Amino acid sequence: MQGKILVVYYSLEGNTRLIAETISKEISSDILEIKPKKSIDPHSKMRYFIGGKQAITKEKPEILPYDINPEDYDVLFIGTPVWAWTFSPAIRSFFANTDLKGKKIALFSCNGGGNGKTFKNMKEQLEGNEFLGEIEFKDPLKNDTKENIERAKKWCNSICK
Ligand SMILES: Cc1cc2nc3c(=O)[nH]c(=O)nc-3n(C[C@H](O)[C@H](O)[C@H](O)COP(=O)(O)O)c2cc1C
């Protein structure tokens, strides 16, 4: 695979971070973590309510500035946790902040059991790009962590070959 590669992700509880870091290390790419200005407490029981509402109402929370330009890359791996059967609000903010067109894009997600419309909804936001693949993981920090790391490595290598 020719070109510059970037892994972009948001993670509240670390699952998507684990996969994002695994992929980035495996293919030696740059990595960008999207961070909301006002973060939700990952230990609070309220997180489902607060985050779920944000996702359902398609909020775009303010995110911290970052100093790399995703538009400079040819291939982007974009990762999100599933919130209320779709992608996370921080990733919605990321999409609003960038104009990705003519890129090669691979999508990954972490969920607690159901991916819902996550990839379909992300692709709608990413019209005008080519999709190379998609993969979901079920809470990889809790379930079969080693196997999931291997699965992530295999997957990103198959995309980048
Ligand atoms: C606000 C919120 C909403 C969630 N909604 C879903 C859902 O609709 N379906 C699902 O399978 N898991 C859901 N989950 C579980 C997460 O997707 C799952 O635990 C994921 O691995 C978390 O990724 P992270 O550790 O990168 O934040 C939700 C979690 C939160 C905090």
Automatic annotation (TrEMBL):
UniProt GO MF annotations: electron transfer activity; FMN binding; NAD(P)H dehydrogenase (quinone) activity
Keyword Oxidoreductase: yes
Domain Flavodoxin-like: 5-160
Family matches, as PROSITE patterns: FLAVODOXIN, FLAVODOXIN_LIKE
Known EC number: 1.6.5.2
Keyword Oxidoreductase appears in the UniProt entry: yes
Assigned keywords, A-Z: Oxidoreductase
Source organism, top-level taxon: Bacteria
Name assigned to this protein: NAD(P)H dehydrogenase (Quinone)
Gene name for this UniProt entry: wrbA
